[in-house]
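[Solved] Which block belongs to which protein?

Original post:
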Amino acid sequence: MTTTYKVLIIGAGPIGIACALECKKKNWNYVVIEKGALTNSLFNYPKNMTFFSTSEKLEIDEIPFISINPKPNRDEALEYYRRVATSNELNIHLYEEVLTIKKSNEHFEVTTSKTQYRVDKVIIASGFYDIPTLLDVPGEDFPKVTHYYNEAHPYAMQNVVVVGASNSSVDAALEIWRKGGNVTMVIRGSEIGERVKYWVKPDIINRIKEGSIKAYFNSEVVEIEETELTIKTPNGEMTLANDFVVALTGYRPNFEFLINSGIKLSNDNARLPQYDPDTMETNISGLYLAGVICGGMETHKWFIENSRIHAKIITEHIEALSTKTE
C-alpha cells in the first residue's frame, strides 16, 4: 500500500522535528520517518553528557528550553525534544527505516522497512551518528571493542584504552578513570583536540600530566588481541595489557544512501554532498538536506544551533515553488 504526502522527512532528531514544525504551521500533509527512537542520536549519547551549547541555542521554533544547569545535559535535551514532539502532535513514525528514494517524474517513491510512500518533496535530516569511523586494524571485531560510550561503570577495575582526543574521548577517559578504571589514551595527534570543551580540557591535561591517565601522543593502534593490544608510537611499537577498547574516532553520514538517492558528493576527503546553501536543495530537484548531514566528513561544522534555520529555509523554498505553479 502506498501512502501520499507533500513532504517526507527522514530523521526525527532536533532538525527533523524543526522541519516537521514548519510543515505543520503551513498545514502541509507531512510525515517524519525515524529508524530508531525519537531523537535517536541524542538517546545514544553518554548518560552524563553535557552539551557545549546553552539551552537557548538548542531551542527550535522559539519554544523555550528551560534547564537548571548552565549547560543542559542529555536527559534534559531528551525531555525537551520529546515534549516538543508530543505536545505539537507531530506525525512521526518511529522504528521505521527508509531504504530507498527514487525520483519518478515530479514525485518521489520512498520505500521503507514497513511500507511505501509517494511524496512531492523529501528532506534528509538523518545526521551522522549511526556509522562509526573504524580503526581498520586486526581484532577490531573483538567483543571488547566498542565505538560508542554510554557510562563508566562496566570499566571499573579494568585496563581500558580510549582511542581519540575529541570531546567524547576525553569525557569517557575522565569518567572511566574516576570510576576506578585504569585508563590509557591513544591519540593520533600531538595534543588534546582543540575543540574539547573549555571547562574539561584543563582537567584531562592535568590528569595526564600527573600520570593518573597515561597518554600516547602521535600514536595509533596497530592490532587488537584478546588480552592486549599493540600501538605504534614515536618510540616504536608497544604492547599494552588490555580488557576493553573504547574507540571514539568519530562517525560519518551514510554516504551510500546519499549516493543511491542520486546526490552527488565532492571527490575530496570531505565528501561534501551537493546542495544549494540558499535553499538546501540538492542536485536532485525536490530533495533537500538539513542539519549536520550537510557537512559530509566535516562533522564538526554543523550543530543544532547553527542548522536549525535549515527548516525555515527549506519550507520557504517549497512554498515559493508551490506558489509559482499555482
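(Second protein starts here: sequence line, then its C-alpha cells.)
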Amino acid sequence: MRQVSILGIGQLPVREHWELSIRDLAVAAGREALNDADIKRVDALYVGNMTSGSLNQQHQLGAVVADFLGQWGVEAVRMEAACGSAGSALRQGLLAVASGECDAVLAIGVEKMTETPGRDTTTALVGAADAEYEAVHGVTFVGLNALVMRRYMHEYGYEHADFAPFALNAHANGAKNPNAMFRDPISAKAYQRGRVVADPISLYDASPIGDGAAAVLLVPTAKAPQAVRIIGSAVAIDTLAIHDRQDPLWLAAAEQSAQRAYQQAGLGPADIDLFEAHDAFSVMAALSLEACGFAGRGEGVRLAQAGEILPTGRVPISTMGGLKARGHPVGATGLYQIVETVLQLRGAAGEAQIDGAHTAMAQNVGGSGATVVTHILQRA
C-alpha cells in the first residue's frame, strides 16, 4: 500500500447560504481544492453527505458534483454515514490512492440544511439513530445525547456548569476562524444562562447546523513529498442504538478506530499535538477524549477544567472552533476537520495557529458513536 498525502484543500464558510444550492456548495469547495493542488483531472470523486435526498430532493450526488466540476467519466459516488459521511468519503479516497487504483482522488463533504422547516431537518437528523428502536418513540437526536449527558453527570458526579470549558474554548477559537459560523467568545455566565434545548443540554452544549462544503485532493506521497501526510486511518462501528451497548458511556468505536490509527502511525496519545474532536455536544467531546486515551474514564471534563484542551494545553481541541463554533453541516463536518488540520500542519491557520504543530488527529463520529472514522496527519 502506498502512503497518501493531501495536496489540495478547499472550504466555504459555514453559513446560511441562501444563494447557493447543494451542487454550488460542493463544486465551489471541490474547485478550490483542485486549484490548490494545481490539478485539473482526478480519477475518482467521493462525496460525503447525509441529507441531500430528504432535504434537497437530490440523490445521485456523486454524479451531479462530478458533472458540474467537469470530471466526466470518472468514478463518482456519494458516501453516507450520518455525521461521519465526510470522514468516510476521505477514507474511501485514501484507500483508492493507497491501493494504486487511483493517482488523484477528490473527497468532498457537503450539506445544505437551512432552507427546510425545522421539523423536517430534525426528522432527517434522527435518521442517524435506530429508526425501529429509538426514532419510533419520538426521541430526537439531541434528546438521545441529553440522556447520555445526564447519565454521565450521574455516574461521575458532575454538574452542568462543569462542562462550560468545552463551549468557552470552542467559541474563543472560532473567533479566530473567518470560516466559522459563530465568531464571538462567550463567558461562563452566558454558558450558564443558555436556553435549555433538551435537559441537561443547553444552547451552548449543542453544535449548530449550517450549510457548507469542504474538500481535499489526495495523491500518493511520492508525487507530493512536501505535502501533509496521512499516517493513520481507521474506521470502526458500534451498535446503532445506544441502549444496545454494553456501556452507554464508552465510545467503543472511537477507541477501536483510534487504536488502529495509532498502531498504523506508530504513535500514541502523547504524540498528538492537536485533536479535532467531534464536539457535536459537550458530552461527546468528553467521551471522545476518554476513548482516545487523552483522559481516563470520567476524566474528560476534568481535563477541560484544567485548561488542557486550550490552544496552550496538552491536547488542544476545536482549534478553529470545532463543530460548536465553526458549525456542523453534518455530512461535511469530517472534511472541515481535515482541512483545518492541514492548515495547522502547514502553519497556515492564522490567529488560530497551534505553535509547533507537527502531528494531529481528527475524529469524525457518525450518529451517537455508531460509526467513527479516525485520521492521523503529519507535517512532511
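Accepted answer:
You had them paired correctly. Confirming on the second one: DSSP finds 13 helices and eleven strands in the chain.
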